[in-house]
Write a structure and sequence with these properties.
Arc Repressor Mutant, subunit A, mainly alpha, 5 helices, about 110 residues
């Protein structure tokens, strides 16, 4: 497995229920601030046992093509709130990492 993908999956596995993180946030947490697209590539191959639905676009948009409605339904069932235009309320639901697990908090 690609070592960067393994790091991405480690972060994704730590995102708590009711919280979301963006592709760019994961890249920054891993010390690769310009690697948001690579995080996206990793997520396309994400193991099924990880909470893949908790990774969204920076503006709170739920990506996923044909799976976007399913992702939204899962997020809603986990308590994630949405703003009127259909995006995740990033102010209320953004996860900033867990310093105890070696992740750098975000600004």
């Amino acid at each position: 497995m690609n070592p960067f993908f393994a790091q991405v999956y480690d972060v994704v596995g730590q995102i708590p229920r009711g919280k979301v993180v963006s592709y760019g946030q994961i890249a920054r947490m891993l010390g690769r601030p310009r690697a948001a697209r690579e995080v996206g590539r990793a997520m396309r191959c994400c193991p099924e046992n990880l909470p893949w639905q908790r990774v969204v676009m920076a503006d709170g948009a739920v990506a996923g093509g044909v799976f976007s409605e399913m992702r939204r339904a899962i997020l809603e069932s986990e308590g994630v709130s949405f703003i009127p235009d259909g995006r995740v309320d990033m102010t209320a639901c953004r996860w900033t990492g867990d310093a105890a697990n070696g992740l750098r908090p975000l600004c």
